[in-house]
Write a structure and sequence with these properties.
By secondary structure, the chain is α/β, with parallel strands linked by helices. The chain has a single domain, classed as Metal-dependent hydrolases (TIM Barrel). It is 51% helix and 14% strand. It has an eight-stranded parallel beta sheet with strand order 1-2-3-4-5-6-7-8. β6, α11 and β7 form a beta-alpha-beta unit. α5 runs parallel beside α7. 47% of the residues are buried. The site of zinc ion has 6 residues, from β1. The site of adenine (ADE) has 11 residues, from α4.
């Protein structure tokens, strides 16, 4: 199974680029940019990465992002993630970035997006990896702030395929961002939102009905509503599930309790993703392996999960066909 997963061509649809900041790069950037970080050494960092819920992670994740200053820093961050894609045979990736995390520290929007974009262009040239960029609004901030950020994004419309919503979920429902998502829809962006990671199914209903999103990020709380499960199945709405993240943030206490196999068996369009791999102990293949070691997933299940990702991605129909054929040839 390990070898089967390793060599299987895969797509990733839920990856926060700031969440791929490995401690080694964090230390070297902190030193170069003369930014203080609250860790003495790598060991210290690993000890700090002991989360109790989403917020306990976010506090540390935003502090880590402070070391990113120059365009080259964002390039290096993205390039390191691309090397992990090569290692894990991820051939297409759709990455999130959180501009407000940086613009609020005085880093220009342009610095962030061009650093990421240049690395992704080089990834295509060097490895043939294709990618899309999705800009997320931080939901703990106001809709006004999101609207200002959205204006900045309009200058980079060709580089940003979609708009997403992340950060502290409970208390910041999708309805808070109805206006800015309406504008994003009018401008033709694809829409996604984190919903039902920790918060109840009303957040998923709002994301679907008020924001009109194309994919739900996480969505694992859907299992608590038969009615919602039926709808997700009927409409085949993609759920970008992140197993390691759910375990590290105690959404589920163990992999054996994770509901991805139940959702798959029910007929939902679920996919596997790494979310914030530098913080959650592993990249794409590690997520698959942890599932396989703890749940009765068959090879057919793995193939279904991987094909769901390609089908649910924001690439052209031709490219989807090409990638699905690649998967079939491998099988
Ligand atoms: N930002 C980075 N990772 C996140 C997650 N898992 N949920 C919400 N916001 C995030
Ligand atoms: Zn996420």
């Amino acid at each position: 199974m390990k070898e089967f997963i390793q060599l299987l061509p895969k797509a990733e649809l839920h990856l926060h680029i700031e969440g791929s900041l490995e401690p080694e790069l964090m230390f070297s950037l902190a030193k170069k940019n003369k930014i203080e970080i609250p860790y003495k050494n790598i060991e210290d960092v690993r000890t700090a990465y002991n989360f109790t819920n989403l917020q306990s992670f976010l506090d540390i994740y935003y502090a880590g992002a402070n070391v990113l200053i120059t365009k080259q820093d964002f390039y290096d961050l993205t390039w390191d993630y691309i090397l992990r894609c090569v290692e894990d045979n991820v051939i297409h990736t759709e990455i999130f970035f959180d501009p407000q995390t940086h613009t609020h520290r005085g880093i220009a929007f342009e610095t962030v997006i061009t650093g990421i974009k240049e690395a992704l262009n080089d990834a295509h040239k060097k490895f043939g990896i294709t990618s899309n960029i999705i800009m997320c609004f931080l939901r703990h901030l106001s809709q006004e702030d999101a609207l200002e950020t959205f204006e900045m994004a309009l200058d980079y419309k060709d580089d940003i395929i979609g708009i997403g919503l992340d950060s502290s979920e409970i208390g910041n429902p999708p309805s808070k961002f109805e206006e800015v998502f309406k504008k994003a829809k009018e401008e033709g962006f694809k829409l996604v939102a984190h919903a039902g990671e920790e918060a109840d199914v009303s957040y998923i209903y709002e994301a679907l009905d008020l924001l009109d999103i194309h994919r739900i990020d996480h969505g694992v709380q859907s299992i608590n509503s038969e009615e919602l499960m039926e709808r997700l199945k009927e409409e085949q709405i993609p759920l970008t599930v992140c197993p390691n993240s759910n375990i590290e943030l105690k959404v589920f206490q163990t992999y054996k309790e994770h509901n991805i196999k139940n959702m798959l068996d029910y007929g939902l369009n679920v996919t596997v993703n790494s979310d914030d791999p530098a913080y959650f102990k592993g990249y794409m293949n590690k997520n698959f392996l942890n599932l396989c070691e703890n749940l009765p997933l068959t090879k057919e299940d793995i193939i279904k999960l991987v094909k769901n990702s390609f089908r649910s991605s924001f690439i052209s129909d031709e490219l989807k066909e090409k990638y699905l054929k690649k998967v079939d040839e491998y099988i």
